[in-house]
Amino acid sequence: MEEIEALIILNSIEGLGFRKLKCLKEKLGSFTRVFSQTEEDLVKIEGITKNLATKIKEAFRNFDLKKELRLIKENEITLLSLEDRKYPENLKEIYDPPYLLYLRGEFKESDKNALAIVGSRFASYYGISLAEKFSFLLALRGITIVSGLARGIDTQAHRGALKAKGRTLAVLGSGLINIYPEENKKLAEEIAQNGVLFSEFPMETPPLKQNFPRRNRIISGLSRGVVVVEAGEKSGALITADFALEQGREVFALPGKIDSPTSRGTHNLIKQGAKLVSSVEDILEELKLDTTGLKEENNRPLFLEGREQIVYTLLEDEPKHIDGIRKETGFSLTELSDILLRLELKGLIKQLPGKMFVRRG
User: Do 329 and 311 contact (CB within 8 A), yes or no?
Assistant: First the structure.
């Protein structure tokens, strides 16, 4: 048996986390030697109880390693142990990093420049739109967006990054062949092509309730900071924020409506010292990240499409009404409204009261 195969089996055992795996490795010199030990030998090792020793012996007999390896190969999964040089640096720094990671997609060096965007599964339109907008603008600046593939804020955070043709990482609370929620299977495929799907669980692990708080430490651990967009008083996003604080990461919160139940958690975070943000610049300046992603070359924004460029060129420092822009371009009101929204999301123009628009900066 190879070392990685022994680790796959050990990783499947509930209650055998990073610290105990580390003790086993240090005491025995390798994971393969674990299975040659008697239960009496195992309980002499720090952290290994009689119950855990029994689970280890049972896993050796019962875990279907051949099936797990077949699923890993069929789904083009990469395995990374904590000792692998490609293991994410940010994650390696936390108190209890997963000893084994399952990855679908390619983790890149640039992904260490990452921010998590999390929030309520039952988000309002306000929260959903802001999650997508912040994710989009951060991704345009080369920031990798991390989230949990859940409904609501997480979903929009991933989508915003993908719309900007940026990088995004999704951390699952299930095995990589059990995408949850099911309606996000297509989104998961897009993420795997433009980022990474992460899990610390064996391939067929179902999305059990107890797995999600555990996966939240990975979301924050992969990131330089955590942005909470919308969260109720008992939201899982607050667990991610707690992990971030324990890991020495920055926590940011977007204020919401004072009477909104899905803003109570974020407002409590702000009261407790989380940094209130109203723009992506607030985040980038706090973390001292590069903000030069929105550059112009020959006065033309690098990422503008043809009709976006036409509208952007017409706008000046003096506000223009949408009707005037429509007459100058000949575009329909529907098409023009869509273009103006995209330019606003890219941070290039600003809408003023009365349907007036002005170029930023």
Answer: yes
Q: Mapping DSSP to helix (H, G, I), strand (E, B) and coil, where does residue 117 land?
A: strand
Tell me which DSSP letter residue 274 carries. Answer: P
Q: Are 184 and 82 in contact (CB under 8 A)?
A: no
Kindly state the average pLDDT of the residues 166-194: 96
Q: How far apart are CA 352 and CA 232, in angstroms?
A: 31
Chain centre distance of CA 354: 37
CATH of domain 296-359: 1.10.10.10
Mean pLDDT on 68-95: 95
Where is 203: in which H helix or E strand? none
In the chain, where the domains are located:
1-63, 105-287, 296-359
Report pLDDT digits (tens) over 110-159: 999 999 999 999 888 888 888 998 998 898 888 999 999 999 999 999 99
**Among 84, 101, 99, which residue's Cα sits nearest to residue 17?**
99
More confident residue, 271 or 304: 271
Nearest in space to 129 (alpha carbons), one of 163, 152, 148, 151 = 152
Q: What percent of the chain clears pLDDT 70, i.e. is strictly above it?
A: 95
- 105-287 has CATH 3.30.565.10 classification: no
Cα–Cα dist 193/195, whole Å: 6
Q: Is 90 left (phi over 0), alpha (psi -120 to 50) or beta?
A: alpha
Query: Would you tell me how many other CB atoms lie within 10 Å of the CB of residue 50?
Result: 11
Assess if CATH 3.40.1160.10 describes domain 1-63: no
